[in-house]
Amino acid sequence: MIQIKDMSKWYGDFQVLKDITEEIKQGQTVVVCGPSGSGKSTLLRCINGLEPFQKGEIFVDGVSVSDPATNLYKLRTEIGMVFQRFELYPHMTAIQNITLAPMKARSKPRKEAEAKAMELLQRVGIPDKAHEYPANLSGGQQQRVAIARSLVMEPKIMMFDEPTSALDPEMIKEVLDVMIGLSKGGMTMIVVTHEMGFAREVSDEIIFMDEGMIIERGTDISFFQKPKNPRTKEFLDKILI
Amino acid sequence: MGLAYEFDWGVLWRNPYGMYLLQGIWVTIKLGLIGWAIALSLGVLIGTVRISPWRWLRLIGTAYVEIFRNIPFMVQLFFWYYAGPMLFGEALQYRINSIIGLNYYVAIIALGMYTASRVAEHTRAGFSAISRDHYYAALSTGLTHPQMYRHVIIPYALRIIIPPLTTEFLTIFKNSSIAMTIGVLETTFMSYKIDSETFHGLESTTGACLIYLALGLVVVRLMGILESRLKIPGMIGR
What we know:
Chain A is an alpha/beta fold.
């Protein structure tokens, strides 16, 4: 589903990503962890073409992201993305947030888009919040609206960029539950997170990144209990109390 | 014959002076409103162009802003009125100069273009107040750049910058008084005209002051209503 081959990215002289190679198959959930500034978020933004990279290649469902002939707008409808700070449109209600893209990018009639949005709000557990503005929702509810906003485009892949880092502890579970449901339902997912419980439950592969490189990878959380790289060990000691 | 000044407030409403002022107010309102329509649409466009991914477009936007905000408004007005028609070549120049009411058109366009440079900077400030992830969130759902600006970024940014836009809207009415220098019969011009005909400049300029004050307060009130109706829930209101 996603193939990354020898991919490198620079901001000016500074190399943020160094020779990343990774393959994610359909239906897999890959968890990416690592200290801040290690290039995790940048990697996600390269996969859906939000940011350019200078070397190597990324293929999504066989389509090259860096090929100038690729229609990135169309490609992005295939890849949902969820952000740390939710990024809901504050001047629109929850349902307006969800229906904007289907109505504008896919020219769906309002009725049809709203029916689909309600179905998704039901799925993430907050159908009663459809007409609330983001400011009147809790963090966990906002993040679930954001997930529904991505799912409404029926993406083949979902990317999560630290989706629970800005949440109060008691709201983390309600968001993780939605994500676990998606993963078990067969969605292809890349999740940047430090929630090791989530990683243990659903991930097919865990990647540890530092200074723009993938320095350790494994298929099981137990892998990280005897990491080869001292940097991985040091990091894990800090997050796994 | 005494030397004491005798007040005559009647010059503010007595025939024909009252009519002078009413005509002046009407012209001031037209200059302000039409100028503002130009300033807002052109300003938002240029503010958007200044953060576009295309270098040459950004350059044009920056050049516009720096030229129009760094030259005094009165100099711009003189330039467009006296030198502007010459830019079109000799044949057209004659035809342009014979347009009836040319000074009105020039005043409106000059006010609009000058204020647009300031609106563009406020718009840019509004854009940069929005986090990069917010742009990415809109794009990641498959919206194109124009759709993202039209439905997500511009409506959000304009709400953020309503307070400085209110100031610009007020300023355009005040700046419209400078149009008297090219013979536009607006409020300030009319108050001078009353002074020159009656020698009651104190009363006529006081009248002009009150007119501008009243206009300004109406604008503040209208923008306040607009602000509370468009307010983003959860943002600090007034």
